[in-house]
Structure formats: C-alpha cells, structure tokens
Amino acid sequence: MGYIMDLRKIVGSRPLIMAGANVVLLDSKKRVLLQLRKDNNTWGLPGGSLEIGENLEEVAKRELKEETGLTALNLEFFNIFSGKEFYYKYPHGDEVYNVITTYICTEYTGVLEKQESEVKDLRFFDFNNLPSDISPPELPIIMSFKERM
Fold first, then answer.
1. Residue-wise DSSP of 77-138
2. Is the pLDDT of residue 1 over 80?
3. 10 Å Cβ neighbour count for 17?
4. If exposure means fewest CB atoms within 10 Å of the residue's CB, which of 10, 21, 38, 79 is most exposed?
C-alpha cells in the first residue's frame, strides 16, 4: 500500500476514498479462499488497494499472488461495491471508504503460501460454513456472491 501510506503521511487517519480490488477464488469443490488478516484478525478475500498506474485487474492479480502465492490464469468481473456499508475504521485508527472491484477466479496455478507480513492463515471454506468473523467491508461482497451461486 505505498500510495495509501504516502497519503497517510499527509492526511493522518482522516477518511480516504480507497479504490482497490479483491478476488473470490474458488477451488474445484466451489469453496472460497479466505485469509485471516493480521491487521484486524478477521477473515477476508485476497485483495488490496490500487497503486499509481495500475488497473484494477492488475491489483487483483498482484494481491492474490502476494498474499496467497497463487497466480490467476483468468479473472471474471463480478461487481463494484461502494457506499456507506464499505466504510471501515482500522484498529489503529485509519478510516477509509472502500470502492472495491471484485473478480472471480476459478483457474489458477501455484502453491498456497501466506504472506507472513499480512496473513495469519489461508483456508478454503464452503459457503454454508463460513467463519463468523469476516472483515466488515467484505461481508456484503461474500454474501452477494453466495446469493448469486
């Protein structure tokens, strides 16, 4: 998050509009890959914020690779999410209004390997047995995808 970190040096913890992307990655059993985040100790989708010069599909692919070790062979656009329910205040006080572009990935390569600096755990979950502690801005995205299935 170089760009956002640079902005934080100027604006502090005040709310930012943060554009980013995440990935609903499904295995052959149609289970979703979630990561246990270190920053807020909740489960969420692999993803992150847009850096200068990137497009949103590049963000999704980069973050998936960085956080999980997996490489997306294809991404399918799912939806763009924004609004009041995507406001989030991180435990350390930074506030954001997320604008999240979500992609679906069913074809990927690589070996599942967590990014030690950001991820505590990586697991596939059945949509009927999701963890109760899902990151607040990602819960509506996951529920929207579940309804689509």
1. EEEEE-SGGGEEE-TTS-EEEEEEEEEEE--EEE-----TTTEEEEEEE-TTS--S-B-TTT
2. no
3. 10
4. 10
User: Parallel, antiparallel, or unpaired for β 32-37 and 76-81?
Assistant: unpaired
90-95-96 Cα angle (round to 5): 105
The DSSP letter of residue 19 is: E
Cα(70)–Cα(55) distance, integer angstroms: 19
Angle (nearest 5°) at CA 66 between 81 and 9: 70
Distance CA 12, CA 76 (A): 35
The reported pLDDT for the residue numbered 149 is: 84
- Structurally, the chain folds into a number of domains equal to 1
Domain of 78, CATH number, reads 3.90.79.10
* DSSP H/E element including 143: helix 139-148
Q: How far is the C-alpha of 55 from the C-alpha of 38, rounded, in Å?
A: 26
Task: Please state, for a pLDDT cut of 90, what percent of the chain lies above it.
Answer: 95
Q: Domain span at residue 66?
A: 2-127+134-148
Cα separation, 147 vs 73, in Å, equals 25
